Amino acid sequence: MACTHDHSCEEHDCSSEWSLYKHIDLPKVSALNEAVPGSVKSVFKAWEHRLDFSGEILRSNDGDTELLVFVPFTSDVKLKSISIVGGPERTSPARMRAFINREGMDFSDAQDMQAVQEWELVENLQGVLEFQTRYAKFQGVSSITLHFPGNLGGTTTQIHYIGFKGEATKLKRDTVGTIVYELRPNPADHKTKAETGAGLSHVG
């Protein structure tokens, strides 16, 4: 389901609502079938820069309009909605499918697996549309994979901006891992005096 903004962003702090880009593990973001390797990282930016078309964009290879985008987060997030700003002249994606907490997917996986949610997209060159999630299904998201099967009729698919609205947990996943590790007894830290030799004397 897509909805439009019902307020003026000059009077409402949209930037803070769409701030989950700060929680994206950008070095680990990847895409399949991108024309320029690594260009997918350029589409994740602040809300106020979503209409800045001067920089690099995510573009599929000519003649192949399918894209698969993997987005890991630095902390678990709850996703309320997604915004996609595509390219002009029918190069915007026509459909989006989302998979949660699945790493290493390829196009075959995306085609064979049931998506958590699917959306029919429309051209959103002004960045005023957001596509709402089934919020109850988008809790505890450590990564999201977005599958764009095709576009609105162009020879290549273009994406300028991908934004996520929601909230992040305060505890980063690497911190959780450290806490879990420290809660597990380490035998080396709990050796007896006999095992360590501490407090023992040797008779010569």
From TrEMBL:
SUPFAM superfamilies: Galactose-binding domain-like (SSF49785). InterPro entries: Galactose-bd-like_sf, PITH1-like, PITH_dom, PITH_dom_sf. GO terms for cellular component: cytoplasm. Residues 9-184 form the PITH domain. It holds the Pfam family PITH. Belongs to the PITHD1 family. This is PITH domain-containing protein.
